[in-house]
UniProtKB/TrEMBL annotation:
Stated name of the protein: Flagella basal body P-ring formation protein FlgA
Entries under InterPro entries matching the protein: Flagellar_FlgA, FlgA_N, SAF, SAF_FlgA
CDD domains tied to this protein: SAF_CpaB_FlgA_like
Function: Involved in the assembly process of the P-ring formation. It may associate with FlgF on the rod constituting a structure essential for the P-ring assembly or may act as a modulator protein for the P-ring assembly.
Ranges that cross the membrane: none
Short name of one Pfam family: ChapFlgA_N
Length: 248
C-alpha cells in the first residue's frame, strides 16, 4: 500500500491531535488529584476535630450524679476541607439534652473559614442498687441482699436507687431475681396497712405520732395515712423507712 505526502501529513496531524488531547486529559487529572490531595484533611486535623467535639460534650453536658460521662466522636470523611487552625477550634451545639444518646457538635475555624458537623455518641453510667440474692415478696431488704453497680443509664431509663441506704428495711412487692436492678416500683418504703411514724412539721416545730399507711409508697411519694390517736386521715410524703412527713 502506498500513501501520498498529503495523506501521510493528514495521518500525522490526526495522531498529534489525539495524543495532545490524551496528554491534556492526563495533566488535568493529575492536577485535579493533586489539588484534591492538598485540600483534604490530614489525619492529625481529623483527630483534632474529633477531640474538640468530644471535649465540648464532656464539658457541657451534665454528668450523672456519682457516675461518669463518655463521649465518642463518629468517623469523619478524610475528603473534607480542613486546615491547621491558627486559633483553638470553636465548638457549639443546638442540643444539650443529657439524656440523648447522640448529639451533633459544630466544629469551626473562623480564620480559615471552614466548619464540620460531628455526631458524638454519649454513654452515661451511674450507680444503681442491684439485687445480689433472690428476694421473695414481702421480704425485708437487708444490706446483704443488695449492692451498687455502675449501669448504662441510656439503657436503664426507669426510676431506681443510687444508694443502698435508700432501700434497706423496705419490703419487696414481688419476687425478685439476683442480678436485677432494683426499681422504685419493686419495693414499698412504706407499705399498706403498716404502722408508720408520722412527723408533723409546723412553724419549725416537729410533732411525732403513730399511724397506719392506707397505701403503698416510695421515697418522695405522697400517700394517705390514718392517725392512730385521732383516727383522722391525712396525706403525707414518704420521707424514710416506715416514715411519713406532713407539713402544715
Amino acid at each position: 500500500m502506498t500513501y501520498s505526502k498529503t495523506s501521510l501529513c493528514s495521518i500525522s496531524i490526526t495522531n498529534c491531535r489525539a495524543f495532545y488531547k490524551k496528554f491534556c486529559k492526563s495533566i488535568g487529572f493529575l492536577f485535579f488529584f493533586f489539588s484534591f490531595s492538598v485540600l483534604s484533611a490530614t489525619e492529625n486535623q481529623i483527630q483534632a476535630i474529633q477531640q474538640s467535639a468530644e471535649e465540648y460534650i464532656v464539658a457541657t453536658i451534665e454528668w450523672p450524679m456519682g457516675g461518669k460521662l463518655e463521649a465518642t466522636a463518629a468517623n469523619i470523611d478524610s475528603r473534607i476541607f480542613a486546615t491547621d487552625c491558627p486559633s483553638p477550634l470553636n465548638t457549639s451545639s443546638s442540643s444539650t439534652n443529657p439524656s440523648a444518646s447522640n448529639i451533633t457538635v459544630l466544629v469551626e475555624c473562623f480564620e480559615d473559614n471552614w466548619r464540620v458537623y460531628v455526631p458524638v455518641r454519649l454513654v452515661r453510667s451511674g450507680p444503681q442498687v442491684t439485687i445480689v440474692s433472690p428476694l421473695s415478696r414481702g421480704q425485708l431488704i437487708s444490706p446483704h441482699d443488695v449492692t451498687v453497680s455502675m449501669v448504662d443509664l441510656q439503657r436503664f431509663r426507669r426510676q431506681g436507687f443510687s444508694s443502698i441506704e435508700a432501700v434497706i428495711g423496705a419490703k419487696a412487692k414481688k419476687n425478685l431475681r439476683a442480678g436485677e436492678i432494683l426499681e422504685d416500683r419493686d419495693i414499698c418504703v412504706v407499705c399498706r396497712n403498716e404502722t408508720v411514724t408520722i412527723k408533723a412539721i409546723k412553724s419549725g416545730m416537729t410533732i411525732t405520732t403513730k399511724g397506719v399507711a392506707l397505701t403503698d409508697g416510695s421515697h418522695g411519694e405522697q400517700i394517705r395515712v390514718k392517725n392512730s390517736k385521732s383516727n383522722r386521715i391525712i396525706e403525707g410524703r414518704v420521707s424514710g423507712i416506715s416514715e411519713v412527713t406532713v407539713v402544715f
